[in-house]
Amino acid sequence: MGIIDFVSDYVTENFGSRKKKKRKPNQTVEIKVKMDCDGCERKIKNAVSSIKGVKSVKVDRKQSKVTVNGYAEATKVLRKVESTGKKAELWPYVPYNFVAYPYVAQAYDKKAPPGYVKNAAQAFPVADAPDQRLTMMFSDENPNACSIM
To answer: pTM for this structure?
Structure first.
């Protein structure tokens, strides 16, 4: 099991006539595409399913979302959808409960489907922010608070 496998792998790698192909990982690509009718939906589904490595295509016209499962790259799928004449972008939304501050200006989007917010850098409070220090100065929880109060 040890030496024989090592020698056989070494011979196959260095002297074998067949080269091993690296397989692309199976992935899910989500794309936002504006679709108006059944024809648009069918056109996009047929275009994407013709890509080599695509296993399944799911189109949700209500959310304007196309989900592709398979071994295809995201950029390839995006280019193929754009070749149908529709404006497309990678899915920019995440579920509402995954975000710490969902109503930050960059995250809240009125065009987002229900239960989703935009995937943006969240505004977390900074420890050295002056607003934070001023509010803590007059806090009841601070034992060194101003005694004039």
So the answer is: 0.61
